[in-house]
Amino acid sequence: MGKVLENEAFGLAAKDNSGVLSPFRFSRRETGEKDVRFKVLFCGICHSDLHMVKNEWGVTTYPLVPGHEIVGVVTEVGTKVTKFKAGDKVGVGCLVGSCGSCDSCTEGLENYCPKSIQTYGFKYYDDTITYGGYSDHMVCDEGFIIRIPDNLPLDAAAPLLCAGITVYSPLKYHGLDKPGMHIGVVGLGGLGHVGVKFAKAMGTKVTVISTSESKRDEAINRLGADAFLVSRDPKQIKDAMGTMDGIIDTVSATHSLLPLLGLLKHKGKLVMVGAPEKPLELPVMPLIVERKMVMGSMIGGIKETQEMMDMAGKQNITADIELISADYVNTAMERLQKADVRYRFVIDVANTLKPNPNL
Amino acid sequence: MAKSPETEHPNKVFGWAARDKSGLLSPFHFSRRDNGENDVTVKILYCGVCHTDLHTIKNDWGYSFYPVVPGHEIVGIATKVGKNVTKFKEGDRVGVGVITGSCQSCESCDQDLENYCPEMAFTYNAIGSDGTKNYGGYSENIVVDQRFVLRFPEGLPSDSGAPLLCAGITVYSPMKYYNMTEAGKHLGVAGLGGLGHVAVKIGKAFGLKVTVISSSPDKEDEAINRLGADSFLVTTDPRKMKAAIGTMDFIIDTVSAVHALYPLLGLLKVNGKLITLGLPDKPLELPIFPLVLGRKMVGGSDVGGMKETQEMLDFCAKHNITADIELIKMDEINSAMERLAKSDVRYRFVIDVANSLSPP
């Protein structure tokens, strides 16, 4: 019983909480009237993929095909698709469905829809489980497809579909995108390095805040940050107190908010985009006496994801990537665990992901 | 030789002060400056007892300079005005709140946000612009720069209006600043004490739906039937808390003890705001996931500037909003403080200064 899914697909899946990925054959649905089918060329490896393959959030069902920074070329579109055609360069990020009618969806914020469907590991409308971009092709509703500007290299554009929108959305929503503002970026990894690039492109002054002096040269000379401060150095923190309009905090390990709040000007905003598992200590005085705020943000809606991608096209913003072959993916995950990557792995899917002849 | 409080200034004054961190208040003779050209001298009629007074007399925050004469919810009559004073004349009914000094030239002061001025001076337990200690409203009179004196509107009673000078502005300011005033939106008020009960009244006056969030089920009747809240949520009832998840646009959190933010954050809708006003003595635990998953925000606020304090008083007069008070005599202050420590008051003590403060 149930729908017969005829379209064969192959990819890499985690089969248990060891998180080890191995070849996996599965099916994708037929191209529905509103669907876009595309051949996957590249897929970024997000830290969320690592959390999910190991079931660190307790929500994983196996087998899990991760990947939500997916770019490729359209091969087929459904009869009611108007915005895309075969040959278009497209991408899919973290979402493939939402209810379409709640307040969040109506405002173009599908990411906050309580019924949003994530690109992998979630139940879709046809009761199948969604499989992500570590696979040869994708089928996705037109409403969740992003057009990739022609001038952007597809491999380095892929991480923007998650990392890019995750930093872009709060910079815009919280008004931290005004030229001349001073923005801090905490953590220099997948999110942080893209955060620096977008904030600079918006005309703000950017200070990278890191626990490690070793990243100073990269931050300033390669990524274009204006300043760099080591959060463990009390003098560097003290000298920068009360100087920042906003801080984008990408760190998901437990860390202290007190020095970060101190870096903010009056009414400054500390935006958490990393999600530490355990609660952090919140000193209340800076909020009360200096009217500072702590807020969270999670990816972005589809409209703003397209807006972000268009801005990336105009301003030549891409991620700094290490392109890997599909058979390197488990090693990449181990290195990602140790933050040993400048700054995103991207799988060269089309050229290196082959169906396992033994299956 | 250092001057004593009695001889420091030309005009002898009588009040009550705490002399050490036992917090015990007793009669105290001190002095105040002459009325300067920008000053207003206020004969004090009433003074509200704020929880901050209790924290300060017991040195809970570690920066009390004894002897402390508390009191920053002061209503009285102007008895003298300096020659540069334009806004007040003798005989006017006036108020003095939490702040009596600021630099008057920084960005915050220019925006009428004296409360965020780095040189802001509190009405008591702070150093004034003349370098001497400020003494507050548990006393016969007070001398204040006109910028920090408020006109008490016609129709606003002096006794039950006094607590608005701190409690009122403390909830009114964030409600305006964080855009919590759109009629029809849903406000949660956590904690039903001096701040909380005024937040309910002001919230209703803005046309908000108001839910009181409390750990005390016995406050439900008061909250709904006397204060006008639309609903009441007991934090220890898991079923009701679950049903209320994702229903509130904002929460004003007045609870000053250390408490859990996680259940409160859960009550907020997407984009919801939690504004904390209480000052716990330790950091709170902030779960980050709820902020990220729902684009929620935690912020704070600290009293208000003089312009918005006047706006708040006028708003309350227009909407007949006053505090619910228990009027006490000056010599009942120590038992009142003991009861306040146990939250045993509906909802603010106010000292009938003019009728009960007399030198021994």
UniProtKB/TrEMBL annotation, chain A:
It comes from the Eukaryota. PROSITE patterns: ADH_ZINC. Transmembrane segments: none annotated. InterPro entries: ADH-like_C, ADH-like_N, ADH_Zn_CS, CAD-like, ER, GroES-like_sf, NAD(P)-bd_dom_sf. GO terms for biological process: lignin biosynthetic process. One of its GO terms (molecular function) is metal ion binding. Keywords: Metal-binding, Oxidoreductase, Zinc. Homodimer. Belongs to the zinc-containing alcohol dehydrogenase family. This is Cinnamyl alcohol dehydrogenase 8. The lineage of its organism: Eukaryota, Viridiplantae, Streptophyta, Embryophyta, Tracheophyta.
UniProtKB/TrEMBL annotation, chain B:
Its EC number is 1.1.1.195. It is an enzyme of class 1 (oxidoreductase). GO terms for molecular function: cinnamyl-alcohol dehydrogenase activity; metal ion binding. Transmembrane segments: none annotated. Its cofactor is Zn(2+). Coiled coil: none annotated. Keywords: Lignin biosynthesis, Metal-binding, NADP, Oxidoreductase, Zinc. Belongs to the zinc-containing alcohol dehydrogenase family. This is cinnamyl-alcohol dehydrogenase.
